[in-house]
Please model this.
Amino acid sequence: MARHIVAPVAEIAPGDRRLVELDGRRIVLFNLEGEFFALADRCPHQGGPLSKGPTMGLVESPCPGEYSYGREGEIIRCPWHAWEFDIRTGRSRFDPRRMKVRAFPACVEKGEALQAETFPVSVEADYVVVEV
Amino acid sequence: MNWLQGAIDADLHPMVPGLQALVPYLPPLWRDQIAQRGMEGFDTQAFPPNSPKTVRADWRPAAGPPAATIGQLRDQVLDPWGIARGIITPLYGVQLVFNEDMAQAFTAALNDWTRAEWLDRDPRLAASIVLPMFNPEHAVAEIERLAPDPRFVQAMVLVMGETPLGRRHNWPIFEALVRHDLPLAIHAGSTYRNPVTSLGWPSWYAEDYAANQQAFQSTLASLITEGTFQKFPTLKVVLLESGVSWLPAFLWRLSKTWKGVRFEVPWLQRSPLEIVRENVRLSIQPFDAPDDAETVQRLMDHLGSDEMLLWSSDWPHWQFDGPPRLPPGIGPDLARKICIENARATYSRLSQEALP
Model:
């Protein structure tokens, strides 16, 4: 796997997303309250661009008529058929075991630690790094 | 017809030979009301007794009412075909009247008529509890009243009711059914609270009969999406005279839609197809597929289960293909499941001693 420095953290605000192309792959990067997650920008169903879908929270229910709602903004829905995927894992909600979008490791690293990379970095800033 | 020997017939329809037949089973108030109100009977638009489709021509007696005696049932179905157990479901429209109290009284009388005139006369028979659905408390009371008799092996509603069947106001009924290990049979036909199609009234019988399929689809969708099977995971539903071949395509559409709007029904945590495989059974009369083994096999593959189908004759209705036959391409193992084992698994109340 190759590590890619994608952007300074400050460029992708919490709740925002950014579409990037890394090694020829379209990957969508999400900022969930300062944590970064990267998913293939390709719905496993028919290839819809997840980067263009709406996000919502997770609706769950222990039994009919009871709702719990949480994890606001952590579910991305494909713009084509509205399938829900967990941004943290890439797993679909309707069949998390078998239907999932590919997730790539993403993290935040300090510019200081990235000095050896070819991407120009500033020692003072933090950067989002994705492994593809 | 070796394959039929020992079979369980899941859909038999004795016909009430007239309102007077229920008189012995009515309390005095309602017995008297028949005369006071000049009541004529509760035959429904779905099965008018004189209509050719209601009774197959070779089963209609030269004189007297059809499908009205245990002798007719024995001679026409049970004895010649070697049927081990038959589940009878009268379709006399007592439960459809608008007066809830009258519906309760006459439905109870019908169920008592079934017990005395049929169950008591042939040990091969079991029966459906006809439910007065327009008052859920009455329906629950009727279940509680009759459940102690193990010969009542299920309860029956018509597929076209007043509101979608899965709605929560019906849940006390499902709770009572589960408590007594009674499957819910849903039979083709209408309570005539709504037109038989969502477009309005059709012109012809062919439209009317085919419209039942839409009603079965909407009813299944209601039960599934309302979460009935999450709330009552052991509830079994038996579709009678529903047809079969529409089911995989319908479930495909329902499941596909569910994947996109799962958040509307978050209690639905399994695909509709899985739920139906586990909780829903279908009688195979009518079997609406081409007379072609390969097509039938493909349909079985789509259903994904060999435990869903139950054999039935639909006596005395005209829809029956008689003489009894199975769809082409159904081998002996599957035939045995359809005719015997699936019904045994569905109806735990069916006593086993009469089975081979």
